[in-house]
Design goal:
- With 426 residues, this protein is an alpha+beta fold.
- Strands 3-2-1-4-5 form a five-stranded parallel sheet, sandwiched between helices. Strands 12-15-18-23-20 form a five-stranded antiparallel sheet.
- The chain has three domains: 89 residues, Rossmann fold (3-Layer(aba) Sandwich), CATH 3.40.50.20; 56 residues, 2-Layer Sandwich (Dna Ligase, domain 1), CATH 3.30.1490; 235 residues, D-amino Acid Aminotransferase, Chain A, domain 1 (2-Layer Sandwich).
- Helix 1 packs parallel to helix 10 and helix 7 packs antiparallel against helix 8.
- It binds adenosine monophosphate (AMP) and glycine.
Length: 426
């Protein structure tokens, strides 16, 4: 069968790599893809902001299955349009994707279905923010309602700062229409965990858990990014806790969405804070995480295409996935300046030496390839150097050994991926 993957990042490289391992797949096409993906799939141009352009690509390629990587086309309704035309597609509809595209929707939904999350207030004006702030203690988390590519969350240390940030969001100056409504949230403390499940609208099958590293600097310092690295190991989530998360969060979400007429199919990404009061939902994403997908898929021993088809055909069961007990770690190498302004077009060296290290796979996030096979940087997050080994310490060691082989001008990466788990002697 022929599979079309929409997207161009490290997550899509990992999806293409894993989909290609299915014995049922004869051809993988990625739109638009990147330099690294072009080594294992055919890349075709596509503007993912434009549903007509995506449909045009699908009409030309005639895939047996389309997999949507990023949130934007999902929130624009690409799945609805494909379904209308009888094209098989993996992911949630526009209405179901509101769990990610509107934070106020997600918070109100969680309140309706008693899903544990931080206390909050939805505000549509500076006046409402002022009134609501009286009920919060500091720090206060200020979130723009809509999608803003990882820039929508500010932890304000004082109420004055919270009011100012919320005001900038509401005025449209900061994030355009994504900030037309803001959510104020109680600040939570604890370890974060990314818990992903596959759903067919009724049932769920859990994936192995992962932990992301959102801040740019070592020791969780500096501004938030799309994610500077992630790891996955059994020790992250005990079986008992996984059952709790399924019973109190994942299943109630899927049942609630169904009860409200927005059946949720695809991957539901639950971003959690493990607080002393118990796990609480920070956010939902309507897709695979990036970079979590890279270490998660490296541990998957079952067929990803079968699982995605089970979601489409309403036959997901808890045993859909088989996992390796190995641990995996992914170190993101970013362009100098990222997550602020950065330069592109720097030549990347050492990729083939890195790939020779046992257990290592270098996923490309923002690269281009010239006709002679040289790679250049073409984005903020450039590479996700991912390694697998029998324990986490060894996986981390292999990933960093591979990172050391790679070079491009002004590159930077975090040196402490998984350090917290390793300190706990995992
Ligand atoms: P979100 O996009 O909602 O996941 O927020 C991005 C990041 O901001 C999260 O991964 C957390 O690190 C942080 N964050 C979000 N909400 C809260 C909260 N209520 N308390 C503490 N940190 C938060
Ligand atoms: N790594 C966070 C995300 O995919 O949203």
């Amino acid at each position: 069968m022929k599979v079309l993957i929409l997207g161009s990042g490290g997550r899509e490289h990992a999806l293409a790599w894993k989909v290609r391992q299915s014995p049922r797949v004869s051809e993988v096409i990625c739109a638009p893809g990147n330099g690294g993906i072009a080594e294992e799939a055919i890349c075709v141009n596509a503007d993912l902001k434009n549903i007509d352009a995506i449909l045009e690509v699908a009409n030309r390629i005639r895939p047996d299955l389309t997999v949507v990587g990023p949130e934007l086309p999902l929130t624009l309704g690409v799945v609805d349009e494909f379904n209308r035309r009888g094209l098989r597609v993996f992911g949630p509809t526009q209405a179901a994707a509101r769990l990610e595209s509107s934070k106020s929707f997600a918070k109100q939904f969680m309140q309706r279905f008693k899903i544990p999350t931080a206390g909050y207030a939805v505000c549509n004006s500076a006046e409402e923010v002022k009134d609501a702030l009286a009920h919060f203690s500091t720090p206060v988390v200020v979130k723009a309602d809509g999608l803003a590519a990882g820039k929508s969350v500010v932890v304000a240390q004082s109420k004055e700062e919270a009011a100012r940030v919320a005001g900038e969001m509401l005025s449209g100056k900061m994030l355009g229409s994504a900030g037309a409504c803001v959510v104020l949230e109680e600040f939570l403390q604890g370890d974060e965990l990314s818990f992903l499940v596959l759903s067919d609208g009724q049932r769920v099958a859990p994936l192995v858990a992962a932990q992301d590293h959102k801040r740019v600097g070592d020791g969780d310092t500096g501004p938030n990014t799309g994610g500077m690295g992630a790891y996955s190991a059994d020790i992250l989530l005990a079986a008992q806790m996984r059952e709790w998360l399924l019973a109190h969060i994942a299943r109630p979400v899927i049942e609630g969405m169904r009860a409200e007429g927005s059946e949720y199919r695809g991957i539901l990404y639950v971003g959690l804070m493990l607080t002393p009061r118990g796990p609480m939902v920070l956010e939902f994403n309507c897709r695979f995480g990036d970079p979590e997908t890279q270490p998660i898929l490296m541990r998957m021993e079952s067929d990803l295409v079968d699982a995605m088809e089970a979601s489409i055909d309403s036959r997901v069961s808890e045993g859909d996935f088989k996992w390796s007990s190995d641990a995996t770690a992914c170190v993101v190498i970013a362009s100098g300046g990222y997550p602020e302004v950065y330069e592109q077009g720097k030549k990347i060296t050492g990729l083939s030496e890195a790939a020779k290290i046992e257990g290592v796979k270098v996923f490309h996030a923002g690269t281009s390839r010239d006709q002679s096979g040289n790679f250049y940087t073409a984005g903020g997050r450039v590479l996700g150097v991912t390694a697998r080994a029998r324990d986490l310490a060894m996986a981390v060691e292999r990933a960093y050994a591979a990172v050391e082989k790679i070079h491009f001008d002004a590159m930077h990466y975090r040196k402490d991926i998984a350090a917290r788990a390793l300190k706990q002697k995992v």
